[in-house]
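User: For my dataset I need records formatted as: sequence, then structure tokens, nothing else. Please produce one.
Assistant:
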Amino acid sequence: MEKIGELKYGPFTTTVNVTKDVKVFFENGEVNDLIEGINSKEWYQSWLLKYLDKNTDGLPDEEFGKDFELIYTGIIENPEDYQEVDEIIENFGIDKERFIFDGSKTIFQKDPSKTKFWVRWIVVRKQN
């Protein structure tokens, strides 16, 4: 995996990584398109922080810590290519206890003759 950036909000830091397959898919350094335009405050408030408050007291639970990884794990060109979380975790040797949530991001390539595709991602607690 390769680090392509960081998202920061208050005491929280999320390292953004891509797998080799994802990096190869994006030609000419376009892999940076995955993090450009992400508003850190909005991303944390809309996504991460709601998953970190399991006891619903309005504050992130301490058990999760403050450091995370957003990992772009693969490309989905066809719905059949979709990988389940358990498969991703197993393929990358990630402890299931570190897993927080997952999703897919729709990407439209710059070449209009090509169709849209999705990039599969997961968020995990950063390993100490």
